[in-house]
Structure formats: C-alpha cells, structure tokens
Please model this.
Amino acid sequence: MSTVAVVAYGAGNVASVRFALERLGAVVRLVSTAAEIVAAERLILPGVGAAGYAMARLTELGLVEAIRAFPRPLLGVCLGQQLLFERSDEGEAEMLGLIPGRVARMEPGPSRPVPHMGWSRLEVVRDDPLLDGLADEAWAYFVHGFVCPDGPATLARAEYGGPVPAVVRAGNRWGCQFHPERSSAAGARILKNFLELPA
Model:
C-alpha cells in the first residue's frame, strides 16, 4: 500500500485530494513541515488561488527548499503545477523554479471565458508512466486563469484558445493543470499511476 504526503499549507484543495487518494487505497499524511516533506515516500503539492499567496505560505512555513530538494516522486496539482515553474505573471511571483518558463495569464475570446472552467479533452503527446492506461482523448476537469508554457516538459495538452499544457514532467516532478481528484476515471488512473511510481 502506497503512502503519500499531501502538503497542507493553507492554499490547496487538500480534503478532496486526500479522499481521492484514500479511495485508491493509499495511506495519506497531511504535512506542513520541512522534516515531514524530507521523510515522505512521495509528495503531492495541491494549490488553488493566487500564485503569490501560495509561494508566500510555502516560504512562511519554511517548505520551499525541502520541496525543491525532494528526490522522490512529486506531483503538483492545478496551481501546484504552476508553482513548479520559474515565475508567474500573477503578481510577478517567483516560484519553485523546477521547470523552466513563465506562467502567463490566459486571454479570453469569443465563447472562451477566463478562467477556463470545465471539462476538456486530453491529448497525450509523450508517453510517460504517469499516463499509462489513460484512455484516448480522456476528459479532465480544469479550473484556471493562468497557463504554463508549452515546451519540452509537456506530456499532454488540452485546447482552450491555444495549447494548454495539461500534464508536465521534469525528472521526478510531475504536474497536472487539471484536478485529477475531480476528473472521474481519467483522474483516478493518473493518481493510481502516481502511487505506483517507484519511490
């Protein structure tokens, strides 16, 4: 049975992530200290709200360096994916810097309001253990007004007036821009795959 630590720092959808993981049989620990992060088998960084506030909370709690140095599987969810990048246009926030690039504000368009809120199809562009067994053009649930840069880290994309990097990876760090805990079978599959990654 996998054990997974979820960072509880006052800027994440901790309860729904925890319940989704427990439904898959995982032992979930909520962590809020650097020592707990260092000791974790695998780590999930959730996030909702503003990037600047989230980074301020991680800094106040002394978690930034522990997350940056974490050597085992790490998954950023929603804003947690954005925090993996270097900086954000949202308040000019400096972020974790684990993946190169700047997170940009999404531009609204005809029949394309911002934030992007709702179900979008995923297009897998690169095979990865996190995406094993994912159905072709699976649907995932998004809620975000900023978008990560599309580049070498992108594993899967959605389309919303342009490419939306929906799943990213750099080394032992993965991110999901959507909410896997709210994305039905596709989200459950991704979380199950994350729990099965070698720690």
Observations:
- The two ends are 12 Å apart (CA to CA).
- Helices lie at 14-23, 34-39, 51-60, 64-68, 79-83, 184-196.
- The chain has a mean pLDDT of 95.
- The longest strand covers residues 163-170.
